[in-house]
UniProtKB/TrEMBL annotation:
A Pfam entry, by short name: Methyltransf_11
EC number annotated for this UniProt entry: 2.1.1.163
Keyword set includes DNA-binding: no
Gene Ontology biological-process entries: methylation
Organism this protein belongs to: Amycolatopsis camponoti
SUPFAM superfamilies, per the entry: S-adenosyl-L-methionine-dependent methyltransferases
Transmembrane segments: none
GO MF annotation, one: S-adenosylmethionine-dependent methyltransferase activity
Listed name of the protein: Demethylmenaquinone methyltransferase
Family annotation (PANTHER family): METHYLTRANSFERASE, OS06G0646000 PROTEIN
Residues of the Methyltransferase type domain: 94-190
Length: 250
């Protein structure tokens, strides 16, 4: 009996059929993006230039500016995310807002050929670059709404969403969706904004968020949102104006 490809196994997890498009599955079709636009940063993700420089220049430089000198590098983020997700061979991992797929490929290596690593993004240009980069046979890509995940309930062992939740128009709805598709005991790890408590910095960071179209969460806010959705064992790491929050669904 022929073994299913990663893309075929992804199709089995979807609530509705998807069209195959340039090496990935597409549920958005002619829609330029899912949900309302939130600002300049989100619009840049759909350009043809940004995917070319995203992994090597844009994401590391922007991350360093936001995390400060003591925050992890992008390679450090990938290592930490993989560790916090505690991925095992045969697991299914979902990389939400995967961009050009660097995290997705790492998760694909962690789950092995018997597992599945799904890279989900709304930008055609990002997914085209991700597909072109290749990677493990356990990797499949999906163009879909990151807020209203199109996966069946309780089908995923781990969810990663790095540098994206603060750009969603409905972040709380996205967290509901993440909890829905996770299996009991499944793990989540998020990297997002973290506004500091000192009032002058808080005001400046809030203004910066408004100008760039990014929501500035308070420290502790994401952890509280996860607890309200049944997550336990929550950890928080702060660097600059960012936070990495992880937990396990009870």
């Amino acid at each position: 009996m022929r073994t299913k490809t990663a893309t075929e196994r992804l199709e089995d997890l979807l609530e509705t059929p998807a069209k195959t498009e340039d090496g990935y599955l597409d549920l958005l079709g002619a829609v330029r993006q899912a949900g309302p636009p939130t600002g300049l940063t989100q619009r840049l993700m759909r350009t043809t230039l940004l995917p070319r420089v995203y992994e090597r220049y844009w994401r590391p430089a922007l991350g360093r500016a936001l995390k400060g000198p003591l925050g992890p590098s992008m390679a450090g983020e990938i290592k930490l995310a993989t560790k916090l997700l505690d991925l095992k061979p045969g697991d299914t991992a979902l990389d939400v807002a995967c961009g050009t797929g660097r995290f997705t490929r790492a998760f694909g290596a962690a789950v092995g050929p018997g597992g599945l690593a799904i890279g989900l993004d709304g930008a055609r240009t990002m997914l085209a670059k991700a597909v072109a980069e290749g990677g493990p046979t356990s990797v499949a890509y999906l163009r879909a709404d990151a807020v209203h995940l199109p996966l069946k309930a309780s089908t995923v062992d781990g969810i990663c969403c790095f540098a994206a939740l603060h750009m969603f128009a409905e972040p709380e709805t996205a967290l509901d969706s993440f909890a829905r598709v996770l299996r009991p005991g499944g793990r989540i790890v998020l990297l997002t904004s973290a506004r500091r408590g000192w009032q002058p910095a808080r005001v400046a960071e809030s203004v910066g968020g408004i100008l760039s179209g990014q929501r500035m969460f308070d420290r502790g806010e994401i952890a509280a949102s996860l607890r309200a959705r049944g997550f336990a064992g929550i950890t928080e790491r702060y660097a600059g104006v960012t936070q990495i929050v992880a937990g396990r669904l009870s």
